[in-house]
Amino acid sequence: MEPLKLLIVSIRNEWQSLIVESLSAAGYIYKIKIAATKQLALQACYHDKFDLVISNCTLPDGQVSDLVSVLGNQIPCLVMAEGVCPVNADKALSILATNFYITSANKTSWLEAMETTLAKWQQNALIRLAQIDQNKQSFHEKVLARCQEELTSFNFKSEKECCVMNTLNLLTEALDVSRSYICQKVTLPDTFFGIVKTNEYRAPGVYNQDKTYLANSSSAWYPYFKRWDKLFENRQPVANLLKELPEGEQQMFQNRDIQSILAVPFFYKKQWAGFLGLEDTMNQREWTIDEIGLIQSVCTLIHEKHIQKEKPLRFETNPLQVTPAA
After folding, report:
1. Which residues lie across from 26 on neighbouring strands?
2. 239: phi > 0 → left, psi -120 to 50 → alpha, else beta; which?
3. CATH architecture entry for 152-324
4. Residue-range domain boundaries for the chain
5. Cα(218)–Cα(220) distance, integer angstroms
6. Which of the given ranges, 11-20, 157-166, 195-204, 224-233, has the highest pLDDT on average?
């Protein structure tokens, strides 16, 4: 069992010893961090995670309500007051507005209040998380609907490019990423095949990247390609932090200044024909199932509305010149 990590704030030594003795008597495994002030408590929570904050209602540098308002959504907080037990007139540390006390004679009477606080906070946290998930799902549904509107609104070929770029713009802003782009697999001479970036949207301040990427089984330019090819064939995305990528891939992406990458394939005649890529250059981002699902849905739209209606791409003599196959 993991030890219970407690942060005790501005509670005198004699009461600290009663808390420690009662936890030991109840069989708790615990670790305690002592903070003398509100400021030190906030610093401790910045550097470490705690299961419970036990704070004196009187702090030397501010109101306890300030501390609870900052920490209360992240950690359950139990506020205690120094006073006198009304039953036996002993000095006591009491839970505010309750009948739970710690005295020298009765060290365990407050543990029920602690356990109730932990259980109630956990229940409320689960409710909040469920609400957050619901809100994200609703938000992703709205983003997908907007993408569908964009990708079906064009009437002429000149408008198609604008609709695709608007979709990438929407994804970049809605998911708060640095780049979003579409890469397509292309036919190359001499049994080569490659990848060309056909569209890209970058957030402000994010620099440009090369448009064309060549890759085949022996290409030193793309040591990651075989792994990606296998994942895409199995309809699986690439969703990694930079530090999680194999060494060759990390070296490849270091010059792109990314912290994490998501690449989701789309298909043409049951073969993957390209991918929709997202990159975050600011944060080590863990891609959620909902985010991956959203991008997969957008890939399906891009494929249905654009890719499958066009001929496959191929390189002409100049590798920067990409045209539909004859």
Report:
1. none
2. beta
3. 2-Layer Sandwich (3.30)
4. 4-123, 152-324
5. 6
6. 11-20
Q: Which residues contact 312 (CB under 8 A, 6 or more apart)?
A: 185, 186, 187, 268, 273, 324, 325
Per residue in 32-71, pLDDT (tens digit) is 999 999 999 999 999 999 999 999 999 999 889 999 999 9
Architecture of the domain spanning 4-123: 3-Layer(aba) Sandwich (3.40)
Dist CA 245 CA 262 (whole Å)? 12
Residues counted in the chain: 326
Model pLDDT for residues 224-270, shown as the tens digit of each residue: 577 888 899 999 999 999 888 888 788 777 777 889 999 999 888 78
DSSP code at position 312: P
d(CA 272, CA 185): 8
Whether 259 contacts 241, CB under 8 Å: yes
Question: Which residues, listed in sequence order, are joined to residue 260 by a DSSP beta bridge?
Answer: 241, 280
Residue 137's contacts (CB-CB under 8 Å, 6 or more residues apart) are 290
Q: Distance (Å, rounded) from C-alpha 320 to C-alpha 197?
A: 10
Question: DSSP readout, 181-232?
Answer: EEEEEEE-STT-EEEEEEEEEE-TTPPP--SEEEE-TT-SS-TTHHHHHHHH
Look at the alpha carbons of 13, 20, 72, 94 in this order and tell me if their dihedral is positive or negative: negative
The answer to whether the CB of 276 falls within 8 A of the CB of 292 is no
- pLDDT, mean over the chain: 82
The pLDDT value recorded for residue 49 is 93
Contact 81, 93 (CB under 8 A): yes
- What span, in angstroms and rounded, lies between the C-alpha atoms of 160 and 153? 8
Q: Residue 203 corresponds to which amino acid?
A: A
- The model's pTM: 0.59
